[in-house]
Write a structure and sequence with these properties.
The protein is an alpha/beta fold. It has helices at 19-31, 47-51, 78-83, 100-109, 123-130, 151-154, 156-169, 184-192, 202-205, 210-217, and strands at residues 5-9, 37-42, 58-61, 89-91, 116-120, 136-139, 174-178, 197-200.
């Protein structure tokens, strides 16, 4: 297995936007180590700001649209996101759902080595996404997102079942675990269940001591 991923979704939290996003990314940079692959998933508005100030932390977009240059007001065009520093993206998050066709068409537009992490609410959706062959699938039961209970505790079978279903559908797709992840114990449990990393947000973005939380996650 490659290095496990710690993927931090900045969302639009006040503590992870603009100047605060830069401060959070700086802490992530300080904590980044050779044992984990650290990723900051930032607002499109902050892509340049963060990508220009990080070396060890990968900067991903929170969303992209399958559109090119032209009359696409308000859409997030992939080439411009890449130009502004995005080296990966998540798609189909529970807070920004898209169609399977959207994911398929976006993948067709992205460079071959550009990682895309498609989010799935359950095993059935994970299987549908795995057929497309994204780099990663993050399983995140919507009811646990932003909560205090990790999916690894509340419903560990959805993690192991998703891993099994995805690998049987497409063994090249890597599975991440999301929803309620807060600490190093959650990360270790996710990996025990077959995931290759975690996707989290509030556990980091709302932490009073971000450095301590990140050190725990990567311990």
């Amino acid at each position: 297995m490659d290095k496990p991923l710690i993927v931090v979704n900045f969302k639009t939290y006040q503590t992870a936007s603009g100047e605060s996003a830069e401060q959070l990314a700086t802490v992530m940079e300080q904590v980044a180590n050779r044992n984990y692959r650290m990723i900051a998933v930032v607002s499109a508005f902050d892509l340049s700001l963060i990508s220009n100030n990080t070396d060890s932390v990968e900067v991903w977009s929170q969303h992209l649209d399958p559109v090119g240059k032209g009359s696409h007001t308000g859409w997030l065009e992939p080439d411009l996101a890449i130009y502004r520093g995005a080296v990966g993206t998540i798609i189909n998050h529970a807070e920004h759902k898209v169609t399977i066709d959207h994911v398929r068409d976006l993948m067709a537009m992205l460079p071959e080595n550009f990682p895309i992490c498609a989010c799935a609410a359950d095993v059935e959706e994970a299987i549908a996404l795995a057929k497309l062959g994204p780099t990663f699938i993050a399983v995140e039961p919507p009811e646990l997102i932003g909560g205090d209970i990790s999916v690894t505790s509340a419903d560990p079978s959805i993690v192991s079942d998703t891993v099994a279903a995805v690998k049987s559908t497409n063994p090249n797709v890597r599975v991440l675990c999301g929803a309620g992840v807060k600490n190093g114990a959650d990360v270790k449990k996710a990996i025990e269940l077959g995931a290759e990393g975690v996707l989290l947000a509030s556990g980091v973005t709302k932490a009073s001591d971000v450095s301590s939380v990140l050190n725990d996650l990567t311990s």
